[in-house]
Write a structure and sequence with these properties.
Elements (H helix, E strand, L loop, with lengths): L1 E6 L5 H10 L1 E6 L4 E3 L4 E3 L2 H9 L3 E2 L8 H9 L3 E5 L7 H5 L5 E5 L11 H7 L4 E8 L9 E8 L6 H25 L31 H10 L7 E4 L2 E10 L11 E4 L2 E5 L4 E9 L7 H6 L12
Parallel strand pairs: 1-2, 1-6, 2-5, 6-7
Antiparallel strand pairs: 3-4, 7-8, 8-9, 10-11, 11-14, 12-13, 13-14
Helix pairs in contact: 1-2, 1-6, 5-7
Amino acid sequence: MKTVFFGTPVIAVPALRALAATTSVTAVVCQPDRPSGRGLHLSPPAVKDAATELGLPVYQPTKVRTGELEAYLRDLAPDIAVVMAYGRILPEGVLLAPRLGCVNLHASILPRYRGAAPIQWAVIRGESVTGISLMQMDSGMDTGPVFATHELAIDPDESAGDLAYRLAELAAAVVRDDLGAVVDGSLTAVPQDAALATYAPPIERADATIDWTRSPTELKNFVRGMSPTPGAHTSHRGRTLKIHALALASERSTGLPGTIAVEGRRVFVHAGTGAVEILSAQCEGRRPQGPTDLLCGRALVAGERLGG
């Protein structure tokens, strides 16, 4: 089986490794190197590093609609292309270039959470189950028919980053277990029910601002879903305070949303109803700290209000 892999960030690496172990990968397509760090030196994406380690050729087109990528694929003549978190919408010519088209490893149970950030939104909205859907790609946004879905329970305390790590391993298992059946025709794709579709749009830093008027459960899930990036944040003394982890404290009486309360070495913030407890936070220019350090350094003081 000749395959091509499309992917860019670290979440796609286990799937690439599984594909390389079970098929003949003729090329790996990922986004270009990007500036990073203080010196803004060009850094390769995680998939490129993995492909280089595996000895696989890498192609990094700056644009996907010029016809060059389509021609590149047709020259390779792969049986199928496998896509996971590539980061760009592929045009129809590219989707049709492999003999059996392109299949996508999407990190949700489709048709729920179509779009760019399914893991984060599933956590933010308090879902208890997610998974990987193996789907035939078409010109829509995650609208193609689905070959197989594999569910994964979401731990109520895990972050989106922790969940992404587990979903990456599940995606690798899907490659090993299901891709061959797609190629030999023993797995049939089933159309999605568009009436059940929900969406997971991209998340920007501005979207990560905490609204303390929400319920404690909503606040906890929001912080989990924004971790590790872009990181949930609030304003405090005219600067940005990142909140890395919250716990529920709904038994506390309600005060003005965003107001800090202290009991011993525990820090609470009043929410729309009840309160939440800060387990980890980070002031600008400092490392993440637990409540004891935040109180000893007077980074947080009872009676102050977060979020202005």
